Amino acid sequence: MNRDRLTVVIAAWNEVQALPRLHPRLAAVLDAMDDVQSRVLYVDDGSSDGTWQLLQGIAAGDARVDLLRLSRNFGKEAALTAGLDHVTEGAAMILDADGQDPPELIPQFVARWREGYDDVHGTRIQRQGESWLKKATAHAFYRLIGRLSKTPVPADTGDFRLLSARALAALRQLRERHRFMKGLFGWVGFRRIAIEYERDARIAGNTKFGFWKLWNLALEGVTSFSTAPLRAATYLGVLTAAVAFVYGAWITVKAVVWGDPVAGWPTMMSVILFLGGVQLIALGLIGEYLGRLYTESKQRPLYLVDAWQPGGPPDARLLAVGVSSESGSVTGAGHAQRPPVAGVETR
Ligand code: UDP
Ligand code: MG
Q1: Which residue of 63, 183, 259, 265 pairs with 225 in a disulfide if CB–CB is 3.0 to 4.6 A?
Q2: pTM exceeds 0.70, yes or no
């Protein structure tokens, strides 16, 4: 019988402390699932702390492990895209390198996938080891994007998920530069189901997402998946114009009825400042979208590959690489073909 194929994709940036603890856990889980033919693909997102050397060691000791190294740090979203692009067959399971997504849950994801689901995603019911501020802002963000975006972005759901071959093929067709992965997953659709889990604290090392990075990610999410802020700018403009009109009418009536004793400098200043502020906000909003249009129009690759190092066994590898690269149409049986990889291989 042909066993189901699953590749676990892990983006890692400076994770020398966490990876030696994660891999044995993951390997134990994969060993136990003997009805699944599994591979592990580590994407080194331009680490500078010896993660790549560490990964070499892991790959030397485990024939399931494939390694991909990007030319520099491209960010988690690009690193994941690179990883998913290199999954040649079957489904992909995305995991964080820091153990926050427990690998022990993978069999549950696989079970759902076998039931026919295309996007099995982990939804956090609890987050350990994260500040209340991060939890509160994350909560607010998911509610906001949920209301603004037309495509579903499930709340409290990160990248911890399993994608079927056809969901993967579909995702690979979305080549936009501003990648808000959670939104892209939602856009793909197909049969989706959540698995609830408690998010553990990092096993080692520090978070790579500080306040500004998270803020920018949130901005990315809102502007990539919603044009509501642009509309909000319009409404704000209409509202201020209406208020200004009423106020203007009132001044006119006042002048006609009671005369005009040249006063009102404070009023004038406040009106000018207010309108100036509103205009700048609206301009800034337009600028955000224009800037995105600009980066999009440059059509740069999403990432550059420094090294692609598939693990053994060699015969299985030859088979996978030999598959022709017809363009990836989204069909139910998307197993056999490998969609074109849009990142550029430099070596
Ligand atoms: N990561 C990455 N590139 C980056 C930032 C993060 O590949 O530029 C990886 C990181 O190694 C980890 C995952 O993305 O495997 C999640 O990062 P982190 O744990 O720092 O984020 P948090 O869980 O705090 O949101
Ligand atoms: Mg983490």
Answers
A1: 183
A2: no
